[in-house]
Specification:
With 254 residues, the protein is α/β, with parallel strands linked by helices. 40% of the residues lie in helices and 23% in strands. It folds into 2 domains: 4-79 and 170-250, Rossmann fold (3-Layer(aba) Sandwich), CATH 3.40.50.300; 91-154, no CATH class. Strand 9 (221-226) and strand 10 (229-234) form a beta hairpin. Helix 3 (95-103) runs parallel beside helix 6. The two termini are 35 Å apart.
Length: 254
């Protein structure tokens, strides 16, 4: 049994087939890139995995359990977290609160405990606060904890999105174009950060990214979509030499 599997999935919107019979598997500590030209269906794949779009056909499984028919928040609770191509931060929350809200799924007390202020409630809140502080410190965001989330520089907002995803305690992390809008120095920092996240948290990472230097520099395996079809899968070296990939996306070897 594979840790995670997309099995023969198709996603149709009316007469448009966005993803066609897609299959791949991930191991529990994989770092895999998902690339392809604009409109290839990459974000649709993420939306299928996380329950936003139920696939027209096929199955998505985490440790043998089908995720079909499960609401997105329940899929997140099962250990699948994601970031978004367009940053989605709540302007009314500060940095600490943004990550704290994501951690709420791990709280083991109910409404009555919270109203009565029981010791169990206080202990759980202390655990949540400690976990959030550790994540923010790991991502060099601890000094900005009281700052409004949307007031951060763009690169730090990207980090906060990752912090929020990590706060859900995932086993599979989906990163949707994490290097978008970053300058070259920030991209180098991001590459090291992603590798460190995988090692520290012992999780699998599937990453959509257009910057080929980022993808080829850190991913162990790369999947290539073109018009919703998986046209190649292999190591970065194999992908760079693959004729279909060069024709469909890369244009030249990188």
């Amino acid at each position: 049994m594979s840790f995670f599997a997309v099995d023969d999935c198709t996603m149709q919107f009316g007469g448009l087939t966005a993803v066609s019979r897609l299959s791949f598997v991930l191991g529990p500590n994989d770092l895999v890139g998902l690339i392809g030209p604009n409109g290839a269906g990459k974000t649709t794949v993420f939306n299928m995995i996380t329950g936003f779009y139920p696939p027209t056909a096929g199955d998505v499984r985490l440790e043998g359990r089908s995720l079909l028919g499960i609401k997105p928040h329940r899929i997140a609770a099962l250990g699948v977290a994601r970031t978004f191509q367009n940053i989605r931060l709540c302007p009314s929350l500060n940095v600490f609160e943004s990550a704290q809200v994501a951690r709420a799924k791990s709280v083991a007390y109910g409404f009555v405990h919270a109203v009565l202020g029981l010791n169990r409630c206080r202990r759980e809140e202390q655990k949540v606060h400690g976990a959030v502080r550790d994540i923010l410190k790991f991502l060099d965001l601890d000094a900005a904890g009281a700052e409004p989330s949307t007031s951060l520089p763009y690169g730090l907002q990207r980090r906060l999105e990752i912090a929020r995803a990590l706060a859900t305690d995932p086993r599979l992390l989906l990163l949707d174009e994490p290097a978008a809008g970053l300058n070259p120095a920030e991209k180098l920092e991001l590459m090291q950060l992603i590798k460190t996240i995988r090692e520290r948290f012992q999780i699998a990472i599937l990453m959509i990214e257009h910057d080929m230097k980022v993808v080829m520099g850190i991913c162990k395996r790369v999947l290539v979509l073109d018009y919703g079809v998986l046209i190649a899968e292999g190591t970065p070296e194999e992908i760079q030499r693959h004729p279909k990939v060069i024709e469909a996306y890369l244009g030249e070897q990188v």
